[in-house]
């Protein structure tokens, strides 16, 4: 492990030295720009944070349609399917999330300052996007919902004094149709504005159920967003946002190699369904005074899902699985900020409160010969989580060259669960285990410190260390109230990096190395003796280390090249699974790609034609904690070509043009009765399409 870290530090030192010899120091006046993919708006560079930005044009016309597709868009950032395609799970710098709605997010997600605080409800359709920002590493001193692995901050287009509207219609492989539209503008000039946007999409899916002769994984999406913005004076900015999403999906793509003909040709008793509805409301108030800014964000969200799938993964009717979770979230974030980045001291401080309630109704229906008569095994649980936090961070310009950074977060968590498990058959409902209620609370103080040295106007080096935190909780599937609990995860994180800007911003280059010492790392495991019992456990200690390099090159008008490479070595230092009696000491952590890379080239001709090629690469990653199953390295080739005039455009696009087959997830359901049941969720195969767009 230490050898990996020494190698990375040595490589970065060589790169840093070569850069440092290029320009003679001058008096600093600013910061190098953040790494940008696409035509993004300006974003103030955070001196001691690795950050990337994806511009709004990357989410249009064959670009990124949902959060799941953002994998490898930034170094060491991957997204995998959860228990279905609508619940993406993040993997960032060795911290990765788990399946089946268990545990807290490793990555904080915000959309227009609305936090998404659970791991279930983040499969968002992406449209009308201004830009998406990625901050890697713990961000708890700057965000109320800052994750142990980082924060994804998505901004949508806000209404203002300019009338604008757009309509897009697309058609592609698997009979996929997509329609998007929106309009925004002033109701009262300089005071009151509104915006409304939405999208509808449907697809026949790419999986064939050979047993029924059906297109199994049909999908339908309906989403809308409305914003009412009021600026009564130049100091006040108040926005009310309403969102709604409706997903109606069929089969969750799963591939059981023992019985299925292939990843996209399976045999099931029925196709199943996965219906999801979500509603959100947020009020954001911003007041700009002479010496400070105040931001208040109040949010409420409801999310519910109804899922039924063939869970024996064969053409025989043996076992069906169902899940009907409901999530309700209230949150309040209040931030006080310095007015601009030109001051000698820049700071942010805030208070955060969140109340999250998750009701679960899940289980399975067992049929003969596995049971004498059809029998339902049902688990009912209500989990409540409250978070109270005070956080802040300040950057002090001690000299013209040296900035010091200090931050602190005081965090208090309360968790409780009420749970019962039943057997239901033709004779009635019977308790399968004693019901119970239990709770715990936890208080931590999380520090951060760092320094940045400005070599000149266009280059700085930085170092920071911080403590990260991921809350504990309960396993609703567990019959034992004591054993159901899992502990919070913590980490000490260290980062050393360089940020630079060259040739009047024609070249931006950022590089960093990192190391995290993680305690009580959270791992999802199945009880091999009783597959109905699943657990989120704590590994005593894990070591996570790696390096990152990002480049943006704009050599001439119309040309843009971007690239990023990330390397992560993540392994369990000490981890013993007491349920299955297995040691994983020294094993590589699953679903952490060893390498990630993204490369893109784009040219826009003066007369309206444009061309764009993208390659997203993921290195090897293990599918199981015992490291017996691995997904080999693969690359996804995407392309777009189009012609745009002032108010309209035509666009042709393709994704995964090399038709790579890969595991977007794996469900490790191996047990004594089914020793081979490692079920793969395949990635999306090659898809092409065309879209027409109009703006006014």
Report on the structure:
There is one protein chain. This protein has 696 residues and is an all-beta fold. It contains one helix and 43 strands. Strand 37 and strand 38 (630-631) form a beta hairpin. The longest helix has 19 residues, at 2-20. It is globular. The relative contact order is 0.13.
Q: How are the elements arranged and paired?
A:
Blueprint: H1 2-20, E1 35-37, E2 50-55, E3 77-80, E4 89-92, E5 95-96, E6 107-111, E7 114-116, E8 129-136, E9 150-156, E10 164-172, E11 176-188, E12 192-203, E13 208-209, E14 214-215, E15 219-230, E16 236-249, E17 265-266, E18 273-288, E19 293-310, E20 319-323, E21 326-337, E22 345-366, E23 375-397, E24 402-425, E25 428-456, E26 459-470, E27 473-474, E28 485-486, E29 489-502, E30 507-526, E31 534-553, E32 559-574, E33 576-577, E34 582-583, E35 595-604, E36 609-618, E37 621-622, E38 630-631, E39 634-644, E40 648-655, E41 663-668, E42 678-682, E43 687-695
Parallel strand pairs: 1-2, 6-9, 13-17
Antiparallel strand pairs: 2-8, 3-4, 4-5, 6-7, 8-9, 10-11, 10-43, 11-12, 12-15, 13-14, 15-16, 16-18, 18-19, 19-20, 19-21, 20-22, 21-22, 22-23, 23-24, 24-25, 25-26, 26-29, 27-28, 29-30, 30-31, 31-32, 32-35, 33-34, 35-36, 36-39, 37-38, 39-40, 40-43, 41-42
Sum up the structure in keywords.
mainly beta; disordered N terminus; single chain; globular; 696 residues; 3% helix
Structure described in brief:
This protein is mainly β.
Shape: globular
Mean pLDDT figure: 90
Beta-strand share of residues: over 45%
For this entry, what is the oligomeric state of its chains? single chain
* Secondary structure tally, helices: 1
Query: Biggest β-sheet: count, sense, barrel?
Result: 23 strands, antiparallel
Radius of gyration: 25 Å
Tell me the structural class: mainly beta
